[in-house]
């Protein structure tokens, strides 16, 4: 079992299978959050995926949304999930076999999509661009593989909107500073409209939800990761971390805990 207090990377191409299992558990917990569910429902309604279409899920992770795409395109279409980590792709395949889904999974990255030009009807990506140091390259790839008239939904977080309460404001600021520094593209949520438009896509609609952590998660992997990383960077001390965790735990019991980050979803079309 991996150490729950060890810093956990959210880049699936940089972690081993033990840490991958921990990340998968975090993704499973987040997938159950109302904000994630509502934004995914909005995304699928906006995309209007049809039977027989070809759909790509960039950064497919555990494969849950690729399987949803597969159900929408039916056996006459094709839904493919792409992830940079072979172990994550394997985990998604294992879950897909258990579900009897027709979803397929390949290993690859957002900078070089393994598809011909003008081939796909639908592309979706969720919370991937925040990890990309060159998001414009990934947007260009989305444009390249979409057929004229094809559409996509790009969902991403904006970590400049993150809130954690309660706690010493200076300690919280330092923790968030480390989080921002360790995220390649932390303000992706606000930057995407300009990047998508500059690449030639038409932004037709925008959705937004807050990913709100449950009070039960106060001692879970995400909080542990963020605070442990701040200690490792020397931004806060072990004593400050312990004090904060105690404050957050007490607040969760009393109903005074809040932790969230805002996500934005952009429906785009290729002219």
Automatic annotation (TrEMBL):
It comes from Rhodococcus wratislaviensis (Tsukamurella wratislaviensis). Residues 56-153 form the Methyltransferase type domain. The lineage of its organism: Bacteria, Bacillati, Actinomycetota, Actinomycetes, Mycobacteriales. Pfam families: Methyltransf_11 (PF08241). Gene3D superfamilies: Vaccinia Virus protein VP39. GO terms for molecular function: S-adenosylmethionine-dependent methyltransferase activity. Transmembrane segments: none annotated. Coiled coil: none annotated. It comes from the Bacteria. PANTHER family: 2-METHOXY-6-POLYPRENYL-1,4-BENZOQUINOL METHYLASE, MITOCHONDRIAL, METHYLTRANSFERASE. This is Methyltransferase type 11 domain-containing protein.
């Amino acid at each position: 079992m991996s150490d729950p207090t060890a810093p956990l990377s959210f880049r699936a191409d940089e972690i081993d299978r033990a840490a991958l299992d921990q990340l998968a558990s975090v993704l499973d917990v987040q997938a159950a959050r109302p904000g994630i569910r509502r934004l995914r429902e909005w995304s699928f309604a906006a995309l209007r995926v049809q039977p027989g279409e070809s759909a790509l899920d960039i950064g497919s992770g555990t494969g849950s949304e690729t399987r949803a795409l597969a159900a929408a395109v039916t056996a006459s279409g094709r839904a493919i999930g792409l992830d940079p980590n072979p172990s994550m792709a394997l985990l998604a395949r294992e879950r897909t076999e258990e579900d009897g889904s027709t979803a397929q999974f390949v290993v690859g990255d957002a900078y070089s999509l393994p598809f011909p030009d003008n081939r796909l009807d639908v592309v979706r990506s969720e919370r991937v661009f925040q990890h990309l140091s060159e998001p414009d390259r990934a947007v260009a790839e989305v444009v390249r593989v979409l057929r004229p008239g094809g559409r996509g939904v790009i969902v991403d977080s904006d970590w400049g909107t993150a809130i954690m309460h309660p706690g010493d404001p200076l300690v919280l600021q330092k923790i968030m500073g480390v989080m921002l520094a360790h995220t390649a593209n932390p303000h992706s949520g606000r930057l995407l409209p300009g990047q998508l438009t500059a690449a030639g896509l038409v932004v037709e609609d925008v959705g937004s939800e807050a990913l709100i952590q449950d009070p039960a998660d106060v001692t879970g992997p995400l909080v542990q990761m963020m605070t442990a990383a701040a200690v490792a960077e020397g931004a806060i001390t072990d004593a400050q971390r312990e004090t904060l965790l105690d404050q957050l735990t007490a607040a969760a019991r009393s109903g005074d805990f809040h932790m969230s980050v805002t996500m934005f979803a952009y429906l785009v079309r290729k002219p």
